[in-house]
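Example 3.2
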Amino acid sequence: MFARLKEDIGCVFERDPAARTAFEVVTTYPGLHAVMMHRLAHRLWLRDFKWLARLLSNVARLFTGIEIHPGAVIGRRFFIDHGMGVVIGETAVIGDDCTLYHGVTLGGTTWQKGKRHPTLGRDVVVGAGAKVLGPIEIGDGARIGSNAVVVKSVPAGATAVGVPGRIIEPARDATAQRRADTARRIGFDAYGATRDAPDPVANAINSMLDHIHHMDGRMEVMSRALEQHGIMHHFEHDSDLDSMAIEEAAHPDLPQSDSLKKSRA
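Structure, written as C-alpha cells:
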C-alpha cells in the first residue's frame, strides 16, 4: 500500500510543475485523494462488500468532486489533474501511467449490463472536458484533445480531437517519435503539438525540436573529434536535462535570452 502511495505521489511531481512538497501533494491534491479512496473501495467491491464500496465512493465524490465507480480497474501511477467533474464508470479499465484532466468522462452508451465503458492503455492522456464513451479501446500512448467526444477506438500513439472525435495525428512515425523523445528529454510534453494541426505555434515547436536534435548530433561529433585530438574527454550524453536546461531557462533573475545562452553553454 505504501509503495503504491509513493508511486502516486511521485507521478504528481512528474506531471504537475506546481507540486512543491510531498506534504502539500498528500494534503491538498483531490486527484490523489480520489485515487487513494478508490483503491480501498475497489478492494471492498472485489470482496463483495458492494454497498460499503459504493458508500465510500460517494464520500470520495463529496470531498473531491471526482466520481470513480468502485468496480473500475485502475493501473499504477494514475494521475487526475485538478479533478473536478471527472466521472469514471463501472467497467472502465485504465492502464498504467495515464493522466486525466478535469471534466473528463469515461462513460457508457448503453443500459445493458456487461462491458460498456472504455479501456485505456498505458500512458494515455485525456484532455480537459473530453468524453470517451462506450466499450472502445484507447491504445497505448494515445492522446485525446480537450472537449473531444470519442466514440470509436483510437490506435496506439494516435491523437484524437473534435466532436465527434477524429484522428488528426496517426501513430508516430520515426520523425514524430524523435520529436517526442527530444521533448521528453528536455522536460517538455509536446503531446499537443500535433503534426497535422493548423497551428503555427505547434509548427514552431516541432521546428525547435528538430533543431535541438540536429544540434545534439553536431555536438556529439565535435566532442568525439576533440577527444581524438587529445583536447578534451568525450562527454556522455546526459539523459536528464530537466535540471540543467529548464530551470536555467526559467530563472527569474535573468532575461530570457541570457538564460537560454546559459542553458546552451
